[in-house]
Amino acid sequence: MKLRTFHFLFAAFLAVSLATGASAQGLYWEMTTTVDGKDAKQTQFSYMPKKYKVEPNDGMLSILRLDQEKMLLVDVARKRYHEMTFSEMESMMKGVDAQMQEMQKQLDQLPPDQRKMMEEMMGKMHPKKEKKAIEVVKAGDTRTINGYHCTKYLLKRGGEQEGVIWATQDIGIPAATWKEMWKDMEEFGKRMAAMTPEGEENLIEKSRSMIDGFPIQTEMKDKITMTVTKIEKRSIPGSAFEVPAGFTKENPPVMKDGKE
What we know:
Oligomer: single chain
Number of strands: 12
Structural class: alpha+beta
CATH class: Mainly Beta
Distance between the termini: 7 Å
Strand content: 35-45%
Order of helices and strands: HEEEEEEHHEEEHHEEE
Helix content: 25-40%
Largest sheet: 12 strands, mixed
Mean pLDDT: 76
Low-confidence stretches: 1-8, 14-23, 255-260
Strand order of the largest sheet: 7-8-9-10-11-1-2-3-4-5-6-12
C-alpha cells in the first residue's frame, strides 16, 4: 500500500469520526458520497467503542482498531489484507523525514544557482501548507434531510469557507455519549497530524467538537457531498472488526525494504 493510500485512509477515518456520536451499544450508518452530484458511491459504517469499520461498495474493507493501535485494509475479493500499527506508521514517516533531511544536505552542497533551481522545483511538486486557524460558524439556517431536521454550520480555515455541514440532534443518542468518543478521536487525530511534516490538522476532524449535533450532510468546496441515509443503534459483535478467517496477510509495499 503506497504512502498516499495511508494518507487517504487517515483522512477518511477522520471524516468518519465527525459522524461518530455513539453509545456503548454501538452504531451503524450508511452514507452516499457524490462528486459534483454524480457517481454516487455507497458506504456502510459500523462502530463500537474504539473500533470502526468502513465498507465501501468496491470490495475493500477498512478497519480501525484504536484499542490495538492498528489499521487494516482487507481485499474481500482476493481474500488478502494489509495490517499496519500506529508505531509502524510513525516509523515510516520518520524514515520519510530522514530522507528529506538527507536530500536537503545534498542540496546544500550544490552551487547556489543550482540549489535555488532545485528548491524551486521541489517547492512546486511539494508545496508547503501554511497552518491556518479552523473555525465553525453556526449559520442558523435549517433544512430537512432524509427526514432529519438539520441546522447549517459553515466550516472555515483561515477565514475562508471550506464547506458546509448540516447537523441534527434528532437521532435519539444523548449528546453526552458523543464527547467520550470525540476525546478518543481527538487524540487519534493529533497522533496522525504529528506524522505529517506540517502537522496539519484535518478540517472535518477539528470541527467535530464545535458542532452541536450529528452531521447528516457534509458539502465540501471541492464539490464532494457526503449524505447519511440511514442511522441506527446496533450491538455489533467483536468479530465484525476482525479479519475474516482464511484471509492471507500481505505486507504493505511501503514495509518491504523501506520502499513503495
